[in-house]
Amino acid sequence: MALYAGDSQKRTRLNLVDIFPRGTQGDGNSNNQIGSGSDIALVVKVPTTQSVDSIDLQQSNGTVLWSVNSAGQGGYLGGVAGAGQFCTQVTLTAANIIAMYTTPVSILAAPAAGSVILVDMIHLQTLPTATQFTSGGVVTLVYHGGSVNPHSSSIAASVILSATGSNNLLPPITTAIQPPSATGIDITNATGVFATGTGTAVVTIWYSIFVG
């Protein structure tokens, strides 16, 4: 297998493992040097071309219980393939904000067939600049191509129009919905386009995947 600078190939079967932060001595390979609290205790390095899970927690028969995939997201949760709890962040440009009334911006791509995105929480940070947005309307997220919102409440247009940056939380839904399967999530706004602004916004979404 390919090795990184300062690394040597090791194959070890261990029962109990104590992990200490690496020291700076010997490129972090010294057994006698324990690092400070600023040293990362354990690093798992995977190739940038990794196509399978980076880390698996398996039963002795090889059944995967939990994993982190090559994108740093969950690949298994509770032994369910494709299930997991995830977090994704998308930066909206000024052009995205202005256009999202007529062209909703994708925040999450569609999951696999039969799978459903279940949103836990959404955070929107506004980052205004010298030129404020005008017009516009209430901002919401929606399952792509439909009218089902994956959250309760909404973000007022005045938040986007403000010259002051802000942090805004869209909480989980409070009523029953029927989220569509194999469908991504977009951000859009009501009434009309936002105009003239030069600011940006950052959308962070915490969600789970239900695998049917």
Keywords:
4-stranded antiparallel sheet, 2 helices, globular, single chain, Jelly Rolls, mainly beta, 212 residues
What does this protein look like?
By secondary structure, the protein is mainly β. It has two domains: 1-45, no CATH class; 83-211, Jelly Rolls. Helix content is 5%, strand content 34%. The chain contains two helices and 13 strands. Strands 1-2-3-4 form a four-stranded antiparallel sheet, with no helix packed on it. Strands 5-13-7-10 form a four-stranded antiparallel sheet. The chain has a three-stranded antiparallel sheet with strand order 6-11-9. The chain is globular, with a radius of gyration of 22 Å. The mean pLDDT is 87.
Q: What would you say the CATH architecture of the largest domain is?
A: Sandwich
The helix count comes to 2
Mean of the pLDDT scores? 87
Strand-residue proportion: 25-35%
Strand order of the largest sheet: 1-2-3-4
Q: What is the CATH top level name of the largest domain?
A: Mainly Beta
Low-pLDDT runs of 5+ residues are none
Q: Cα-atom Rg, whole angstroms?
A: 22 Å
Distance between the termini: 36 Å
CATH topology category name of the largest domain = Jelly Rolls
